[in-house]
């Protein structure tokens, strides 16, 4: 009886060690991803400021190609703002109830 309990305790200890290792590994990965997202948001902010400066300058060459480039810069600026907004609002207003999966919560939030 004592041997069975000892083996069970050793197994549970090893299982908890492995679980702890992967929990710490996953936590560190999440922290690294968060840092990368924050750095990306800083870069997006700098690009947004640059886009605004470029768009404030008057256009002296009135060709279709130049107008298309300016319109594309405006569209890109809007896309950058939407991406930054999505990244900063990931965890706001998300409630996951018991029995719900994340995909259904995201679909509800988008609609």
Can you characterise this structure?
The protein is mainly alpha-helical. The protein has one domain (2-110). The protein has three helices and no strands. It has helices at residues 2-56, 64-88, 102-110. The longest helix is centred in the N-terminal third of the chain and has 55 residues, at 2-56. The mean pLDDT is 77.
Compact description:
This protein has helices spanning 2-56, 64-88, 102-110. By secondary structure, it is mainly alpha-helical.
Count of DSSP helices? 3
Largest sheet: none
The helicity comes to over 70%
Give the SSE string. HHH
Distance between the first and last residues' Cα? 59 Å
Low-confidence stretches: none
Count structural domains. 1
How much is the average pLDDT? 77
- Give the class from helix and strand content and strand pairing: mainly alpha
Q: Using only CA atoms, what is the Rg?
A: 25 Å
Proportion in β-strands: under 5%
